[in-house]
Amino acid sequence: MSSLSLRSVSKRFGATNVLNDISLEVTDGEFVTLVGPSGCGKSTLLRVIAGLERQDAGQVCIGARAVDDLPPAQRETAMVFQSYALYPHMTAEQNIALSLEVRRLSFARRLPLVGGLLPGSARARHAIRAEVRQVAEQLEIAHLLGRKPSALSGGQQQRVALGRAMVRRPSVFLMDEPLSSLDAKLRAQMRVEISDLHRRLGATFVYVTHDQTEAMTMSNRVAVMHAGRIGQCATPVTLYDDPATLDVAEMIGTPKINTFPALVGPGGRLVVGSLPLEATAGLPEGTALTIALRPEHLVPQADGSGLAGRIRSIEDIGSELLVRVALADIQCDAIVRLPVGQRDRQSVGRAVGLRPAPGRVLAFDRTGLRVPLAQAGAAAAPILARGAAAGQRS
Amino acid sequence: MNSRPVAYVLMAPAAVLVTLFVIAPVGVLVLLSFSDWQLGSSTLRYTGLGNYRQLATDPVFWVSLRNTAFYVALVVPVATGLALVAAIAIRGAGRLAAFYRTAFFLPVTTTVVAMALAWEFLLHPSFGLVNLLLAEFGVRGPVWLRDADTVLYALAAIGVWLKFGYYVVLFLAGLSTLPTDLYDAAAVDGIDRPLDRFRYVTWPLLGPTVLFVVVVATIQTFQVFEIVATLTQGRPGRASEVLLFTIFQEGFVYFRTGYASALTVVFLCLILVLVLAKFRYFDRKVYY
Fold this sequence. Notes:
The structure holds two protein chains of two kinds.
Chain A: E1 4-13, E2 16-26, E3 31-35, H1 42-50, E4 57-62, E5 65-66, E6 77-80, H2 92-104, H3 114-117, H4 121-138, H5 154-166, E7 172-176, H6 184-201, E8 204-209, H7 212-218, E9 221-226, E10 229-234, H8 236-241, H9 246-251, E11 258-264, E12 269-272, E13 275-281, E14 288-293, E15 298-300, E16 307-316, E17 320-327, E18 332-339, E19 351-356, E20 362-364, E21 370-371, E22 373-375
Parallel strand pairs in A: 3-8, 3-9, 6-7, 7-8
Antiparallel strand pairs in A: 1-2, 1-4, 4-5, 9-10, 11-12, 11-14, 12-13, 13-22, 14-20, 15-19, 16-17, 16-19, 17-18, 20-21
Chain B: H1 4-32, H2 50-57, H3 59-91, H4 97-109, H5 112-122, H6 129-136, H7 151-176, H8 180-189, H9 194-222, H10 226-231, H11 243-253, H12 257-284
């Protein structure tokens, strides 16, 4: 088992900076997810770690060892591909066994017929079979070992791909969107199983996905990537409550965080439309900002005060209501998350007034960086610390 | 609405052309093979299986068949094998790939007769480049195209050179369909030496392409004619007599059209066997 560290890794494809000065420390046994929209460089970063792609600058270390000059096979990493990349002409067993055979048996020993006659081949093969079987039992695919990939379902192929990675006992597992070709139900199940697997193996996992639900539910920490940079790397809760940039705030959370244009008013007080908020920023009057509010942090007011709007649609998903409100004042739509208890009180077309929950307003400047806010009237102490507080969820 | 009349109308041009230029001529050919017709003659007599009986005992036919088979057995493995190696090398050649692809393909685009003349010069016993080079190493080169022992090898070498670029292109097309993910997975698994990569990934996955190229190459090689007609005329003796050349001689030199037709029918049957074999495998497809 090993830690993994990336130091100022950059990579260009032609004129495009795919990776831009990326630094990341993954501790031994940690589950870190790289999440971001397509084209953000997350898969390229994973391929750089695996050694399938060479970075132009920077260093990759696994454990205490710089692996930049090592070919993929010697990096003690295993990779699970989005397409599974199983060898179609081999059975599940051969797929899993191949990496061990290539490592432990010479080219001559691996030849059909002749190889079996060489002394020691049988013993080595016997050991490999036993290890393959053990891994297959862990993944509950022992009964499928004789089948070729084309005779396996997507989920079963996925397990074979996991088995192929596990059998080598790598110190770092790299997973490139391994669940994206599964259907929703299977994906939810495999999410749990991969988390379990991570706990059981105690190995370091680096997991790439564009699905923030996967990122939030499986990881110790999530690195949110955007245009070749890591916007923030923190625990899922920190990313949700305390995002460092607008990109991060928008990437994390479903439904997406609400954003409204705002201005800094007299005394640094934030103003949305004509509504002054209970928050101040230490910026000159007239500065334009974007404020962001999670759907559960917009509260309908019984007296109709606050941002005036009209309910446009209601999504009742059983456990909660997602209400879309058209805010006339600022010409924006807002999504409000309400408990199902309010089901009877809301109807499409009804007028509502919304106010932000106290202390929950997030503000970002024009470049998308977080602006620290203070509670209006209180001392200037920021209510939420700015930036990439790196923590670890246990 | 009934779409069948429309279908027939749409099919008609192709059907007419195929009938006119393929099916009818083959039909006429089969009929002629049962006759003693000579080109230009106004009479024609039905001879039944006479031509075929003659063919079975004709030493020229058997020599010709054996030479053709020998030529095919030389050219097909060498041309396809070299083409596969070249295609894999080109894939790894980076910037020079386009150059090599074009260079290898060039002979395919040339006029065979003109190229045959160039080869005649190269293989000339006294001032040909091949024998001059051999002389540098103290080897006295044979009279390639006039020696019964070497003529088929020399022709085979020319045949390989002419066709191999075409197979390179076919293999390149096949290689480009192999998923790169598999090579990545193989690299992570420790399969990073070229020989292992070929054995575990390229060769098994390229199976359908290899089969296709071998069948196409066999059919094409069977049809060897131009280089024989321009360089050796089947000589010395009958050492380079091949099927198409025999057919040409019987039909257009000796004007024994009936007999040439019988030869052609046999030739077509041989090709047909290959085509059927190809369809048999390809309709099942060697997929996994």
